[in-house]
Amino acid sequence: MKLAILPGDGIGPEIVAQAVKVLNALKLNISMTEAPIGGAGYEAAGDPLPDATLELAKDSDAVLLGAVGDWKYDKLERHLRPERGLLRIRKELNLFANLRPALLYPELANASTLKPEVVSGLDLMIIRELTGDIYFGHPRGISTLGNGEREGINTMRYNESEIRRIGRVAFDIAMKRNKKVCSVDKANVLETTELWRQVMIELSAEYPEVELSHMYVDNAAMQLIRAPKQFDVMVTGNIFGDILSDEASMLTGSIGMLPSASLDANNKGMYEPSHGSAPDIAGKDIANPLATILSVAMMLRHTFNDEVNALSVENAVKTALAQGYRTADIVTDGCKKVGCSAMGDAVVAALN
Ligand code: NAD
Prior knowledge:
There is one protein chain. About 40% of the residues lie in helices and about 20% in strands. With about 350 residues, it is an alpha/beta fold. β1, α1 and β2 form a beta-alpha-beta unit. The chain is globular and about 60 Å long. About 50% of the residues are buried. The site of nicotinamide-adenine-dinucleotide (NAD) has 22 residues, from α4.
C-alpha cells in the first residue's frame, strides 16, 4: 500500500504528524512518501501543485492531506495561490465524492454551541460533489465592460452523469445507514439544480428502500441548526456542500473534529480534515489533530478496506476523549487541556 503524505501549510504539518504517529502505531505495511502542496508547493517549486507531487499522488493508493493556504499568499496571481493546488489535485485525481460525517461524541455534547438535547446522538453524513459546479464552470473571470465597469463571472454547471454518479454514492451509503437521503438544491431559482432534482428523482427509482426528500439550501442551512438529527444522508453540489458542511462542523463542537474523504470511482481517495490551515494558530502546538486522525480511519475503511483498524482508530479517539483529553477548541470545565502533539500521544496510548 502506498500513501502520499501532503502536509501543506499552517497547522497542516503539525496535525499530519499526529496522524502519521497513529498510522505508525498500527504497524501496517504502508509505504509513506511526503511531498509539498499549496503554499509549501509554491515555495518549493513555484507551483501550488508541483508536477512531482501530482505524480506521487497519482502513483499512490491514497493521499493524506493536512491543509493549504495562508493569507501571505493572497496577493499572488490566482493560479499560483495555495487553494488552486487543492482544487487541481481533486480534479486531476477525479475525486468527485466528498464524504463528511458529522458525528457528535457524547463527551463533546457540551462543547457544541447548540443545546445538548439538539445535538446529542447526532450522526449525519454530508455528501458533497467535488469536481463540478460553480467552482469549475466556464466562462469565469473578471473582465472590463465597454463602459469601463468591471464584471465578475462564474458559471454554475452540472451535467446529468455528474449528478447521477454523486447521487449513486449517496443512495449506496444510505443503504448502509438509516436509508434516508435528503437532496439539497435551489431548484426554485437555479435551472442547474432543477436538473439536479430531476436526476435524483429518476435515480431514486433504483433504490425503492431509500426515502428521498428534497430541501432548498436556505432551509437546509436553517434546519441544520434547528433540528440536525432529522437528517441521515444529505447530498448536494459543490458550493452548497462547502458551506453546509462547515456549518455542520459546529454541531460537533469544533471544526477540528471533522474528517473527510474524497473518493474517485474506484475508492482511491484523498483524506483530509474539513478545516483549513488555521494560520492564526499555526506553529503553536494548540491545533486539534483529531479530524486528521479520524481521516486516517476513513482511509483505512474506504480505500484499504480495513474496517478493523478503522474502528480501532475511532475507538482510540473516543477513549482519549473519555479520559478527558481536550485541545483548546473543545475544552470544557474539568477536562485535561493538551496541545496538538500530546493529543496525538493520547490517541496512540489509547490504541496501544
Ligand atoms: P480555517 O478552517 O483554517 O480556520 C477557521 C477557524 O477555525 C480559525 O479560527 C482556526 O483557528 C480554527 N481551526 C481550524 N482548524 C482547527 C483545528 N484543527 N484546531 C483548532 N482550531 C481550528 O479557515 P479560514 O481561517 O477561513 O482559512 C484559513 C486558510 O485556510 C485560508 O488560506 C483558506 O483558504 C484555507 N482553507 C484551506 C482549506 C483546505 O486546505 N482544505 C479549507 C478551508 C480553508
